[in-house]
Design brief:
Nucleotidyltransferase, domain 5, 19 helices
């Protein structure tokens, strides 16, 4: 059409129509949208669409930078290739002056940026590039940890300090995530990896990670293998070859590193749909993460179904996913684990206990017998370093009531807020010694008869009525196996009944 340039696509269409010998040149040109004259030009190979593009070799206007580029700036770049355009502009403003005013102003910065960028592209040292890899099903699985501080998850309105352990099959990109409270420890790695393997139903031939301290000793004096014994045993149990990235080269674990951003973004979007970042319990949050990952993996289900048949068969039982530690119980009846101090039953003093320490629980064994088990706490999330169960030490403490007043873990000894309120009330209304004896006897009563909540309810009811809390009265309520004598004596028989007995006795003697 007149006034419009003929495009390369129109020329291709014209040449296609020419393949039909029954169509004339004019018809081919008409079908392609241009004149027959243009068709003749195309046939001669002289049309502008048939000539190669030659970039412009001249400048439309001259730049003041051109005058000093060859003499000043390029030699500076050759000597120090790290120089930036802004630095070169500072040099020009200081060096080239017209009186007190600089000749080269900020208007030259964009020209400097273009020229420096072009010079570095041609003359700079070769850069590292990413090499695409070909992956095979069942060959490799990757492990890594990622922080979740920026997500802002809370449990009952309290911030949850945690990480996510992420496992990914490199071929199918099938991922698994687990909430981690303990940091990048071996327990976290072992629990997360084993849960992931049992979730996918098999193990890859190779397990790859960065230089985790949970898996590697990271000793520069060990030239080849510096695996920790626990990690070596874990990989051997699942018949996986342990490998890692070069130190400081996190991009070599890129297949799992890149997934962190996608997983976090998915979690963030799912939280928006949920309408809240607060969860009732840790179990609810963990189940929610499991569902998010299940939906996240839906896009990779086709490749995962292919890869499953290449995975190795799992052993019947899991490997050890906890730390084993032996400790002798001292007279304090307290054990210390990762800066946290836990009370244990006082009857265990002097015995050596074997601890199984996982990221959630701590279990103690005397020989093969389990003697205690409690939830593990972390110093970063706790207001106190003491975790005290009053039942462990109350029978000893009730014999030393004055020790309660100055006890370093007095607040942690009281089991809940109700008992803190009860103690505050008794402490204000009684003397120091009486208050200590009273609260300790109340705690002992709760321990002996397993009546923590009911006992607290009775005490709080008395507080609401401003009545005194009498331990003897409370003990009478719960100590049903040793009741006190009744306070009221039953009425005696009438004396007339005894008179009748005397008269009857006289009759009997008379008959004899």
């Amino acid at each position: 059409m007149a006034g419009k340039k003929i495009t390369k696509q129109q020329v291709k269409l014209y040449m296609k129509h020419k393949e039909d010998e029954n169509i004339t040149q004019g018809i081919c040109a008409a079908k392609s949208g241009f004149s027959e004259r243009s068709a003749r030009t195309i046939d001669k190979g002289l049309h502008h669409t048939q000539t190669l593009y030659e970039p412009r070799s001249y400048k439309t206007r001259k730049s003041p930078i051109d005058e000093i580029w060859d003499t000043d700036l390029e030699p500076m770049l050759q000597a120090n290739p790290d120089l930036q355009p802004t630095t070169l502009l500072i040099y020009l403003r200081r060096t080239y002056l017209d009186g007190d005013k600089p000749i080269y102003t900020d208007s030259c910065l964009r020209t400097l940026q273009r020229k420096v960028s072009k010079w570095k592209a041609i003359n700079a040292k070769p850069k590292d590039i990413m090499i695409p890899q070909k992956h095979f099903p069942g060959e490799q699985g990757l492990s890594d940890f990622t922080h979740m501080k920026d997500i802002g998850i809370t449990i009952n309105a309290k911030p949850l300090g945690h990480m996510l352990y992420c496992f990914r099959l490199i071929y199918s990109k099938y991922s698994y995530a687990k909430v981690i409270l303990s940091g990048e420890s071996f327990q976290a790695l072992s629990e997360g990896l084993q849960e992931a393997l049992f979730n996918i139903g098999g193990s890859p031939k190779e397990h790859r990670s960065d230089s985790l301290s949970a898996a590697y000793k990271n000793d520069k004096h060990i030239p080849v293998e510096d695996l920790t014994d626990n990690y070596k045993q874990l990989c051997f149990h699942y018949n996986m070859k342990p490998t890692r990235n070069n130190k400081g080269k996190s991009h070599e674990n890129g297949s799992v590193e890149s997934s962190h951003g996608h997983i976090k973004n998915r979690i963030h979007q799912e939280l928006i749909l949920r309408g809240s970042k607060d969860f009732i319990s840790l179990d609810e949050y963990e189940q929610w993460i499991y569902e998010v990952m299940k939906n996240f993996n839906h896009a990779n289900s086709k490749n995962f179904n292919v890869e499953k048949s290449y995975l190795q068969k799992l052993p019947k039982h899991k490997s050890v996913d906890y730390e084993i530690k032996s400790i002798k119980i001292s007279s304090l009846s307290i054990i210390t684990i990762k800066h946290m101090k836990y009370s244990v039953p006082s009857s265990l003093q002097g015995h050596t206990i074997t601890l199984h320490i996982s990221q959630k629980d701590i279990t103690g064994y005397l020989g093969a017998v389990e003697v205690f088990s409690f939830e593990r706490k972390y110093i970063k999330d706790s207001q106190s370093k003491f975790v005290i169960d009053y039942r462990h030490i109350i029978h000893s403490l009730v014999r030393k009531p004055r020790a309660f007043k100055s006890c370093v873990y007095k607040e942690q000894l009281l089991p809940n807020q109700d008992y803190i309120d009860i103690w505050n009330y008794i402490d204000k209304s009684e003397s120091c010694d009486v208050a200590s004896k009273t609260i300790l006897r109340i705690l002992k009563l709760s321990c002996d008869y397993n009546c923590l909540d009911k006992l607290a309810s009775i005490c709080l009811d008395k507080i609401s009525k401003s009545e005194a809390i009498k331990v003897e009265e409370l003990e009478g309520i719960f100590n049903t196996s040793n009741p006190k004598l009744p306070s009221k004596v039953s009425v005696q028989h009438s004396l007339d009944n005894y008179d009748k007995l005397i008269v009857n006795a006289g009759d009997c003697h008379a008959s004899i």
